[in-house]
Amino acid sequence: MRNLRRIVFLRGLFAGVVPFLFLFISVVPALAATPSIIVSQTCSPGAVRPGKEVTCTATVTNLRSTEQRLRITDIVTGGGLYPDTAVVQFGGQISPEPSLNQLNRQEYGYFIIVLTPLSTQTVPVKIVPFRSREACLYSFWANMNNEIRLSPQAGGPTVATARSAFSASCAA
Length: 172
Hints:
Elements: H1 2-32, E1 37-44, E2 47-48, E3 54-62, E4 68-77, E5 86-90, E6 93-94, E7 100-102, E8 105-115, E9 120-128, E10 141-152, E11 160-169
Parallel strand pairs: 2-11
Antiparallel strand pairs: 1-3, 3-9, 4-8, 4-10, 5-6, 5-9, 7-8, 10-11
């Protein structure tokens, strides 16, 4: 009888403690995973003729009450190689050649932005898809993406990403 009471007591103890532990374990990481940087992006116009300029505007928001120094990288996909498609302006600066130039993917090196506490900053990116006029000799259409990646100035994993799509077409 004594063992039965002990088993009932232990069963009741576990029934009350285990759910509380699961609640504690699931809530604490969720609070730590709250993003401190939010980035969104829009590109306009959504469809352009080859050689015309597309302006993508990224809006970066700092939700922390401390200053953030971030490294911004711009990636253009779907536009062939560098001389065909180019980012002509990145963050208000004239853009150099891409730091990574692969077929249908160019990565434009980073620059540092400083976000004051609880602030928002816009970063303009101007892209000229398929600069050669020869693209319209034949029926032509390309779906392209522009992606902004934010990471800490000192390096490390990406903290925020925004992607926006546009197209280059002779029918635009």
